Amino acid sequence: METYLKTNETHMFSDLSLKTVDSDKYVENVNDKCKKYFACDICGQKRLLNKKHTHNQTKEKPSSYAICNKEFPQKSDLSVHYRIHSNDKPYSCDVCHKDFSGKSTLNVHFRTHTNEKPFSCDVCHKEFSQKIHLNVHYRIHTNEKPYSCDVCNKEFSQKSTLNVHFRTHTFEKPFSCDICHKDFSQKSNLNVHYRIHTNEKPYSCDICHKEFSLTSSLNEHFRTHTNELPFSCDVCGKKYSRKYDLNVHFRTHTNLKPFSCDICHKDFSQKSHLNVHYRIHTNEKPYSCDVCHKDFSRKGDLKVHYRIHANEKPYSCEVCHKDFSQKSHLNMHYQIHTNEKPYSCDVCHKDFSRKGDLKVHYRIHANEKPYSCDVCNKEFSQKSTLNVHFRTHTIEKPFSCDMAPWKPILVHRKKIVFYYRSFISCDVESHHSCCDMRFRMIIAFV
């Protein structure tokens, strides 16, 4: 027998006839303070009205299933639950023929075809096809996060999100790609990954029509048109269009380098930099120039190289208006005007404008000569010096003087400067003997 619980003594339920009153309308119209509840003596379940409660008449305990021991208030619920274990799906969708174990589940699914969303949020008016989705959505407005991680105590609004998060601690990746066998912690990530193999790009930019496989990638790309930089560094105030770029930038302040080379143990702040670095060990150069077929290990280096063929120099010095094909070359050139030498030797305190020059200079103190001549085995600290030396064996002289074009070409570019200074006071057309003598001195010096 069910016990009647009165929440307000002034309102008597006995005045209403259960035969004539619409229970749903009654529940909607009755004030919350006046609601009447029935509590079951067997299972303790509370109901607004004395609706059908199967085990009330039989005095039996709630039905349970022997396999999973899950309990149900009604035998019909147990019957529906049994279909999960038997994989029985008697209800089929007329549109897509997908099968379901329960009729209610089929009804919910059918809304995906009709785009019916009967449940609406009172706050933001967003609509949903299922009430449970609306309930979960409400937590955005209430900031309710009832599910907490036992390991790191991070809180979540959905249990499914907690389950996915927990895999970060267990390193569980239950979803695997059938093609490349890469594993993923989320099925959604696997579905997105499949687009790499199918080359599917369902999201297109309305402005430039560039296509993307992810909607997040499209949103990030769209900021290149709007020049929107929503992510800002708390330390230096630098702004970025992508949160990922901000996270990578932040490592410059923390000096965090989480990616390490297995061969030489050099650390990197970005995984992409590590991947490029690996090519030093493997000598892999996957990017090739279509014009001269020169190979490069980085795509960026190939793009810069293309400017040689196109004679493109997009970077110009504001002081002397000299043009450069690379921004790094412009920055180095600019130090000529500022006389800036930010790199200093720890041994002799000599200053340099370029970091590469400092590294080469260090070899003087270490007596390091990593470049050796294949002909005479003479060693050099710089590759450029080796190249100049090698011309003494090949008798190659690629540099010519414009003032005396009939003379042999010189071995080293720097000797041209010295030769010009010897030539500057000489009348080229009438004093050939003087020039010949000076030229022979230059050749002997080289």
From TrEMBL:
Compartment annotation: Nucleus
C2H2-type domain segment(s): 68-90, 91-118, 119-146, 147-174, 175-202, 203-230, 231-258, 259-286, 287-314, 315-342, 343-370, 371-398
Keyword Cell wall biogenesis/degradation: no
Coiled coil region boundaries: none
Gene Ontology annotations for the cellular component aspect, listed alphabetically: nucleus
Gene Ontology BP, a term: regulation of gene expression
SMART domains per record: ZnF_C2H2
Any Pfam family matching the protein: zf-C2H2
Keywords linked to the UniProt accession: Metal-binding, Nucleus, Repeat, Zinc, Zinc-finger
GO MF term set: sequence-specific double-stranded DNA binding; zinc ion binding
Protein name: Zinc finger protein 271
